[in-house]
Amino acid sequence: MQNQKPSCPKCGSTNTYKNGHDKFHNQQYFCKRSFKLTHCQKHKLFPFPYPKCPKCGKTMEIYKIRHAFVVFRCKPCHTKDRILTNLPQPVLLPLDSFKFFRFPIFIVLKAFVLYFKANLSLRSLRDSLNINVSHAAILDP
Question: What φ, ψ does residue 20 adopt, rounded to 5°?
Fold first, then answer.
């Protein structure tokens, strides 16, 4: 199999050479003007729909990818927008299991967060939530 140079679609000349790649990684060739043999679109990097520009309404493109967010930019008007990518998934709690608790669910969950994240003791947890309960009652389920 021989390596044949592609012919120019405009003039038909085979006197062409490679001229880099475009932004979609398609090989470009050059004769008297630049041309491509294949046209492939870039695949979307994220499964969520890309945002629309608030100024002109066109779909924005990815500008920068960071650890916790993606920066999108509108090409015509240069508007930038950040979208968080590592949002925690909501956890559905069965409400029947909290039916006979003495305190509402949000106070119980806040106590869990303060105990495990802030490393508060049980007595300081009781004082920070302003609830009238012994520290032993917090410890027991």
Answer: 80, -160
